[in-house]
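User: Could you go from structure to sequence for me? I need the amino acid at each position, not a summary. Structure tokens:
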């Protein structure tokens, strides 16, 4: 079955509806994905008291991994798949889809962490400290996601949550991550919608 079949006869009088339906189709396709992953890069953080000013992406990782949730709570042993319990840095990268019911995003960490959305620092929880939560407001949309983290010694802790004042916080679920391929698909869908609008206007 052609997944685009329902768009074969667009309603030229209602372009907004066509675009909305294409977006709905894209979101439905994303929901079908059983697993969306966050890429992780691990770094030797020996002697660190804060995250590098140039960012973790400026360094060479010693190992890589993936995860579907960022929910590493009060760990006394190895942090995630790093092979280390102490002196470890980690860079989490993906694309994050924030839906309309989410108003706030939070990072809880021990030790330091920084959250970037579309390369903009939105949460600075850096430095050596015990478990500490910092939150920031967030708007619906799809964002390039980078979360930097390091653990000096003692128990490691890193949890990413979101929610709203009325519904409380929950760990960001696997369905909210988008791959580079899915982002490219979204761009194609929006480009097709723009082309459709142009064709309709000149006919």
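Assistant: Here is the amino acid at each position, in order:
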């Amino acid at each position: 079955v052609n997944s685009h079949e329902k768009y074969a006869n667009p309603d030229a009088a209602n372009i907004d509806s066509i675009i909305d339906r294409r977006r709905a189709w894209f979101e439905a396709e994303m929901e079908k994905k059983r697993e969306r992953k966050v890429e992780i890069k691990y770094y030797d953080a020996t002697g660190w008291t804060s995250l590098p000013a140039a960012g973790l992406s400026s360094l060479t990782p010693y190992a890589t991994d993936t995860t579907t949730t960022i929910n590493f709570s009060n760990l006394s042993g190895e942090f995630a798949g790093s092979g280390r319990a102490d002196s470890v840095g980690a860079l989490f990268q993906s694309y994050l889809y924030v839906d309309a019911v989410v108003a706030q995003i939070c990072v809880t960490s021990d030790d330091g962490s920084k959250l970037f959305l579309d390369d903009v620092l939105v949460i600075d929880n850096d430095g050596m400290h015990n478990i500490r939560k910092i939150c920031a407001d967030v708007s619906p949309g799809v964002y390039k996601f980078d979360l930097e983290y390091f653990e000096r010694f003692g128990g490691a802790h890193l949890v990413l949550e979101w929610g709203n004042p009325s519904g409380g916080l929950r760990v960001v679920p696997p369905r909210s991550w988008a791959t580079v391929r899915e982002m490219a698909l979204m761009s194609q869908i929006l480009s097709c919608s723009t082309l459709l609008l142009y064709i309709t206007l000149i006919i």
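One structural detail worth keeping in mind: The chain is about 20% helix and 40% strand.
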